Amino acid sequence: MAGSRLWPWVVWGVVFAVATAVLRAGRDTVDTVHALLAYLLVILGGSVSGGRPLGLALTLAGFLSIDYFFQLPYDTLTVSKPLDWLVLLSFLTTAVVTTQLLTQERARAAEAERRAGEVASLGRLGAEILSAGRAEDALAGIAERIRTSLEVAHCRIYAWDGEVVRLLTASPADAGADPWAPDVDELRRYAQRTDRDGWAGNAGEPAVLAALRAHGRTLGVLCLTDARPIVLDAAQRRFLEALAYYAALAIERTRLFAEAEHAEALREADRLKDNVLASVSHDLRTPLTTIKALAQEGARRGDAHALAIEEQADRLGRLVADLLDLSRLKGGVLPVNLEVNTAEDLVGAAIRQMAGLLQDRTVDTRIDFTEPALVGRFDFVQSLRILSNLLGNALRYTPPASPIELSVQREGAVLRFAVADRGPGIPVAERDRIFEPFYRPPGAPADVGGSGLGLAIARRLAELQGGTLEYTARPGGGSVFALRLPADGAPAP
Amino acid sequence: MTTPTVQARALLIIEDDAPIRRALRNALGDLAERLLEAPTGREGIDLTATERPDLVVLDLGLPDCPGVEVCREIRTWSRVPIVVLSARHSDTEKVQLLNAGADDYVTKPFSTTEFAARVRALLRRARLPPEDIATVVEAYGLAIDLLHRRVSRGAMPIRLTPTEWDILRTLVVNPGRTLTHQQLFDAVWGDAAGNPQQYLRVHITNLRRKIEANPARPELVVTEPGVGYRAELPG
User: Is B215–A348 a contact, with Cβ atoms under 8 angstroms apart?
Assistant: First the structure.
């Protein structure tokens, strides 16, 4: 270091001496002005390579040398004429000002170079953060960059999620034992500070804390420690602040990434559950088909139990379908297809679907065919399930001789489908519970054929289409289940 | 129970599950002289090509390829009736298969008796060349004169709009066959844009009010929920 600073002095000292010697040899032929110009050149060179001290030293040497060697009387320091003073002072002023200007310019250039270096370094770091596969790797990169740039032993980055402080970066193995590690409570207290400055630890202490803030939130704490006191100049603090911002962004990225991963895991679990249910239901349907086929063969041969086997297989099939649908309804993945449909079409399909269960019973349908067809906007298949379920319940839970009515009418903006029976009705205390999954009326026979899920599914299906499903007691005895679905205002073409 | 007039030469069952194959054999045994069986889609396609069966029963859960692909492939070179067996119970799948050219669709667990009835209906339909379809279809007290575009109940003529007539004709010339909403719409309106497909259902309802004895319990024009409509002719 000392050698490299001494060299310009030696070089420019020699140049000065040589110039003096040459000019001295020819002093009878050269003018004072020539010597003066030659010295100015040497001073300029010295200032550029050796800075202000060398420039000023050469200026002083030049001043004396001109007076001594090149002004009459020669080889004395006396100035004979007042005009010679003018020459000497002009030289002095010019040389000093030039040296001063050159030095300032050099300082400015050095500062600009340093700034450019900083910008390039931050730019590289930004690119590293953006390109790092994992945000944790980016944080490790930032910590390492801070550590090496500021020449401190340890740089740690802690994440702060509002409650827990968590170390995100490990110290490199060659950093040595940490002389000063902050405890978790201190970090938490620090992270909870609301002042905007975000610095702790005064210059000269062996630890510096910096809050990592982005988008108005404290996301973590950066901690520098070293065996020596840490002294940061303005530029280093600026550098640290910029890197701290990057670190905050990287922490935010780790958090967003973790959240996204969590959401993805939830979706995956949901999908898996649905797949399992779908495949269970699929796997159950195939053997059920075989059982039904065998039962039907048995029935053809006159086996008295065959019918019961088929009925139970059907019941099992319904239970499987209901469980699958309840799970889909809970998960919100059951698709509804809202389309323009007519009430009659739905009623007809429901009666047709019940045909097997009806046997000798009848359902009175009440539709006014003199009015234009009632049109609604609903999912045909799901609404059919609701109506079939209501009709099925009415058939199962009422005495064989009692009548069942199915009526439709328009009530303002909704279509009201009502299934009414003259059965025992539902006790007041039970009325809210009938729409709960696995509910069964007290005293109902266990093998009545329902899964106990029907009304729960039906109500969810109605709500999914913007409709409702409600129970009311029927005047004169019995139950009325009313399904309301959105009517379609547009008239038929 | 069986109608002796329907006797097919050969039926092909493409199904990987042996117990189901056995159940189908028992149910369909007296409908055909010969029952062919294929446990994979590939073998099924090959047998369809070499043996030219009168009807194909196609399971969708085949180990080697999706059933809908088998259906499409067979449809590229054969008009053999195809009945699909599915365990998935989804209407969109049903629509997709019918649009791909399948003739009928049965969801597991199904009743083999009902299944045999549907196969019989398909066989009967397939045996009639298109030009042999009666020009007057009589069912449920209705007379539908396809040639003169007239419908009557007894001596009472029934007035249909052109759209209602087109729907009725399309359904009746494909008896027993479920036509998807899309297929019906294409057949009635062709490429004509502007008439919203959603009103097909309203047209059907109006048609039923005119031709069905009880429009709330239609017998001729039957709804296949979520899929489309089918004309059910007795006998």
Answer: yes
B8-127: CATH number: 3.40.50.2300
Its pTM stands at: 0.60
Name the segment(s) of chain B with CATH classification 3.40.50.2300. 8-127
- Inter-residue contact A341 to B223 (CB < 8 Å): no
Q: Which fold has domain A339-486?
A: Heat Shock Protein 90 (3.30.565)
Helix/strand/coil for A141? helix
Q: Does A375 touch chain B (CB under 8 A)?
A: yes
Coil, helix or strand for B83? strand
- Alpha-carbon span A182 to A207, nearest angstrom: 9
β-sheet with B228-231: strand ranges across: B179-180, B228-231, B221-224
Name the segment(s) of chain B with CATH classification 1.10.10.10. Answer: 131-231
CATH superfamily label, A135-257: GAF domain (3.30.450.40)
Q: Establish whether this prediction's ipTM goes over 0.85.
A: no
Mutate to test the interface with A, among B202, B212, B219 (most CBs of A within 10 A): B202
The domain made up of B131-231 is a member of CATH 3.90.660.20: no
Q: Which of A475, A488, A468, A347 is nearest to A407 (CA)?
A: A347
> Chain B: which residues have CB within 8 Å of chain A?
17, 19-20, 22-24, 26-27, 61, 87-89, 91, 107-113, 195-196, 198-199, 201-202, 204-206, 208-209, 214-218, 222-223, 225-226
Q: What is the pLDDT along chain A (493 residues), one digit of tens a residue?
A: 456 678 889 999 999 999 999 988 888 888 888 888 889 899 988 888 888 888 889 999 988 888 888 888 888 888 888 888 888 888 889 989 988 998 888 889 888 998 888 788 777 777 776 676 677 777 888 888 888 888 888 888 888 877 777 777 766 555 555 655 667 777 777 766 655 455 555 545 667 777 888 887 888 888 888 877 777 777 788 788 888 888 888 888 888 888 888 999 988 887 787 777 767 777 777 788 888 888 888 888 888 888 888 888 888 887 877 877 887 787 777 788 898 999 999 999 999 988 877 878 888 888 888 888 899 999 999 999 999 999 998 988 888 888 899 999 999 899 999 999 998 888 888 888 888 887 777 666 655 556 678 898 999 999 999 999 999 999 988 999 999 999 987 544 4
Distances A29 to A34, A197, A378, B82 between C-alpha atoms, Å: 10, 70, 116, 122
